[in-house]
Design brief:
Structural class: mainly alpha
Shape: globular
Strand content: under 5%
Strand order of the largest sheet: 1-2
Number of strands: 4
Largest sheet: 2 strands, antiparallel
Mean pLDDT: 76
CATH topology of the largest domain: Rhomboid-like fold
Radius of gyration: 28 Å
Number of domains: 2
CATH class of the largest domain: Mainly Alpha
Distance between the termini: 24 Å
Amino acid sequence: MFTTTGSRGLDKAPLSKGLLLVLSGLTVVLNLLPQYNHLFTYSLQAITLQHQVWRLVCGRLICLDLKDTFCNSLLIYNFRILERRFGSRKFASFLFGTWVLTALVDFLLSEAFHYLFDYQVSELPAGLLGPVFSLFVPFYSSIPKVPVTQLLGQISITNKSLVYIVGLQLLTSSPFMWLVALSGLVSGKLYHGNALGVQRLLFVPRWLSRVGAFVLEPLFSGPPPPNEPPLGMGATLDIQRQQRMDLHDQQVLLAQFHQARRNHRPPQNGLMNWNRFFPSLRHRGQNLPPEPQPHPSPQQLHPTAPPLLEPTAPPLLEPTAPPLVNTPVAEEQVARLMEMGFSRIDVQDALRASNNDINVATNFLLQHLG
């Protein structure tokens, strides 16, 4: 019933894959060596009273609870779509900036809680939880939701529902996880909105990004996922029908592409005109030009004898691509898709191809330009 965002696998997301493997592996090691767990606790009291500033680093990287590690890893896996949209350097800058901001916001929220309720928060859940919660801000604003099904006929299930459910599960795992989540959301809003120019102050330098790409990509890069995933044996009838419809649409688009290559010259400067290759999917078979009727011969006008009728087999119809049409695009939808990082030309061509259906255009852009 639930689907994840983006294509399968961790292709073009080396940072997300590295975080999943390294942080999960360190959590397993600490659970096998519990005598070292006290070095990685996120103790606010030890930081303020005993001046153990190093806990701001050790206590905010590795989760000590396996359940928190599982939910945190599942969120990082789904947020890999942000790394594909923004790029690894911008994605790393967002994590680094929010990691620094959450350290400050954690203390401010704990002091506000102590002032309002007269209760001192001495320890918070350990791990890379604040920056992961901050990723909900660009995920909510940048990734469009695509309806999947209806629950009880009223509740709409989208491709983003699973991510929000996992976030709620992580939110209820410990008593003060809500404080970490609130700190992450506030920090994510500040960094995503570039409040006080924090993006110019907290970012990953270009040279460090190149070093990371040189080190991480050979270690964590993998083969790209297949273009067309196979139909699941255990899928429901509705899901199988939807998958077959998607496969049929992709075959039609490929047929249009080959037809356009046969009928048109390749564009100059390496630019592809999608408007010629991928027309509207909603008006297939419409606005077809009338077929020319042949002029009858004198023998056909005045037949002398009726022709003998012989049983013939019906002609074989070869699949052809629908006619190429132009459709005006909506500027509001163009702006929404451009916020995801796509160029205006690609967005306009994708919207024309889908007849201004933003869900179809989004899926097409994610599959072919992701």
